[in-house]
Amino acid sequence: MILSQGNENQTLPVLGSDEEKAMRIAMAKAFPDTQRLACVSHIEAKLLVFMQDKIGMLQNQRRQLKFQLFQLVTSTLDHTDLIDSLCDFESKITQKKLADHIKNRIHPLLVESKKAVQKPGLDNTNPLWMNNCCESVNHILKQAVSSKSQKLVDLIHKLHSVAQRQFKELRRALTDTGEFVLCPDFARFKISRNVWLNL
Questions:
Q1: Beta carbons of 23 and 137 less than 8 angstroms apart
Q2: Is residue 110 included in any domain, yes or no?
Q3: Does one domain contain both 20 and 111?
Q4: pTM for this model (two decimals)
């Protein structure tokens, strides 16, 4: 998901995604100079599973540690301040396996996200960003194929149909005639239905 487009102050977009390792590697290779955000809900979910299955922590312990860890992201000034706070946090964890997991898996993702939102134009983006838009599209795609494997040609036709419906909704939003409205940043693109029909 592209969170910001380039302008005169920032030439490259910021990309947001799930924590999916293959996707993040591909993004880094395809767009080596971009900054990336990781979806915090996926990071949290995987951390909670790790603490339960690999460490055997009780539910209240898992919740408390998760709260303390992610509070560092919002309470620190910038990514360098976050690095110091994370290192201090990790040094206080008694279970080595958990400390190593946070240091090697969670720490880089949080620092990368904190650094990304310091970019001009993203000042109002929460460093605890969630990948809701992609999750919504993912749900739509799963519904289109009934969450079942498809033959390639059938899958292409179904994906094309989904994309066509999305374009129809976009056209309706542009002409202010559908269920969706343009967000403030794009409101200037709204045109009347009569103008649209005469294009």
A1: no
A2: yes
A3: yes
A4: 0.70
